[in-house]
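[agent] plan:
  1. take the single chain provided in the ticket
  2. run structure prediction with default settings
  3. attach structure tokens to the ticket
  4. add a short note for the reviewer (M.T.)
[agent] executing step 1
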Amino acid sequence: MAYKPEPAFTHGTPSATGVLLVNLGTPDEPTAPAVRRYLKQFLSDTRVVEIPKAIWWLILNGIILNVRPKKTAKKYASIWMKEGSPLRVYTSRQAQMLRGFLGERGKAGALKVEYAMRYGNPSMESAIDKLKAARCDNILVLPLYPQYAASTTGATMDELGRVLSQIRNVPGIRLVRSFHDHPAYIKAIAKNVMAEWMKIGRPNFATDKLLMTFHGLPKFHLDKGDPYHCHCHKTARLIADELGVKADQYVLTFQSRFGRAEWLQPYTDKTLEALGKKGTKRIDVICPGFAADCLETLEEIADEGRVTFLQAGGSEFHYIPVANDTQAYVGALTEIVTENLQGWITGEDADIVKRDNALSAQRAKALGAKS
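[agent] step 2 finished; step 3 output follows
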């Protein structure tokens, strides 16, 4: 096998530790061709669609990629920001803020932070190349999926393995499997909700509900051992406790299903419709499973969900944005990163590190090293 060329190396150059944030992905632009490229990569992953390859290839290439891109591109256009796709914009801001937060803890010089998308750009491969070029001997990978699922975190692990298989000098790797019950994450989500309630008022739970909606998965994932469903329920319970919301005052649902198979229930759209018909006056909706606002939150929930609830008889619908690049959320990511970097960041004095690197260079040259 031919490995990728290693970055240029000079003995005595200080090593660093890399942190890689990974989100799901997004088209490069809100156009049918760009959406088609993105969907082809995304929906071709067997982690995402567990249907026999030959059958799914015909469905994907014969129907979905010919029909869906144009419709989906219009939806992306409705939520596109000046800087680009919301998911990419917010993930980029999170990475930039994380650099600063880690710097405040005295670790900026030893740490390099990048972000990537599992599907689309910037790719995980390009981000790891950057970290390798920055002399990162160790890399912490943080998939921005609080709840583990084979189709998200598992797919990230697969791509990480593929990228590393092309590298001769493989860096040390750690991967955060999930953070669905991490206290800092729970507090950040609750703080984001409380900040919104300070503006619009806390719901009257005699007539109102808090709805927590998570991305859906086919039910057979749960039946075959995927912990995602359990992680979502634990997250919702902990957030409710932090907010002081009782079990009968919130509803957990799952969104974004497609196809004929049964998915995790209750379904978000059906629940919004049922609540409207039952006389629920106000619904406040949060999406705790998303690290950044995207098509599934801004278009499917904030827009389509609003219409569904109000047309069914509801009076007031509030979509509470994802915590995104708030200080509390990036602060939570900083805590998670710091905990998982134990042993990689030594906190040694800069002068001592500089001296040791110089000695290393001298020894290497004495043994015949040219650089």
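[agent] step 4 note for reviewer: The mean pLDDT is 92.
[agent] ticket updated
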